[in-house]
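FW: tagging you since you asked about this chain on Friday. Here's the raw sequence from the shared folder, copied in full. Didn't touch anything.
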Amino acid sequence: MTIEIKVPQLPESVADATLVTWHKQVGQAVTRDENLADLETDKVVLEVPAPVSGVIKELRISAGTSVTSGQILAILEEGAGKGVAGDAKPAAAAAAAAPAAPAAKTAAAPTAGGEKLAPSVRRMVEEKQLDPAKIPATGKDGRITKGDVVEYLDQPAAKAAAAPAAGKAAATTPATGAAGRQDQRVPMTRLRARIAERLLEAQQTQAQLTTFNEIDLKAVMDLRARYKDVFEKKHGVKLGFMSFFIKAAVEALKKFPLVNASIEGNDIVYHEYYDIGVAVSTDKGLMVPVLRDVDLQSYADIEKNIGAFAVKAREGKITLDDLTGGTFSITNGGTFGSLLSTPIVNMPQSAILGMHATKERPVVINGQIEIRPMMYVALSYDHRIIDGREAVQFLVTIKDALEDPARLLLSV
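HL: got it, structure written out here
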């Protein structure tokens, strides 16, 4: 029995997608729920799972083609481990009938222990020409994570194996000019193009300004050092700084509701809930998954949800629902060493808080010079609805809450 493999129903706000990679070719066996192809939209990467076990009979769409919901991608002959019924052609001949596509994009995806690899992990494995079976897996259900690949590459044996592969790749790349200088032209992914489009739209549409302040994090660091072991033992997650900043941001948003509002036409929409987006960096670009109703979440809940979103984003499992509906955002450039920056507002939101690196600096405390762990913070905001007074006082509220964490407990 032949089964049509179709493009899944795309989210309402997504018109089409691009078929990025085929992980199976004509004549190859597949198992039920195995990922056959990756579809990239301007927001997320979607997988196309096999509805039944069987053998690929025909590929109708080549990699790099735009597709829409319900479009037929391939034909699958049901029956695991068997050849295509009534088809005497060898697999090699059948493969020749498949749509032409670049070899790099049509290569079968490596697997580990029978489990599929996430797109970001697969890319690393293919680029480094690694054997997935040799990489110790720590992910759910024995899957290899991006961290597993990085840790494996740090081992001397892996470096030695990867070095010849890298050298071979370099040797086969055509050189230009006497000095061997060269250019490489790579099409921008839909996700990267959409990020660029939204950032440019935000700058052209909103009247964005940025105000700054600095926070003495000694009280938070002392509190964290005192309870981090007990916290991790009880809740199974580390106590990070982000949960403190999110809690402080919620108190500031309650005090200044305009910062939690957005503009729709000629109306200002006040959001009476607190859905905060936390920026996560991935190999495909910056994503901002949203934590819902953070005012109702505990510190442990926030830390667990942040960790879960980070894993989903980096493994290409993030969904469109995870990325939509936020009322305010926080980004932490300090994880990359940034000391000061002006973040761009994530539309249609009206403000974004930027965290930065914590550095020990001399400050005056009660007339005495002391060395304190200081962080610069930035608030970029839409000046069309948020005045400078509210923006400055919003940051001061966050500063006061973090320099005296008891305020977060008492909501003062």
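FW: The chain is about 30% helix and 25% strand.
HL: agreed, and The mean pLDDT is 82.
FW: great, closing this out.
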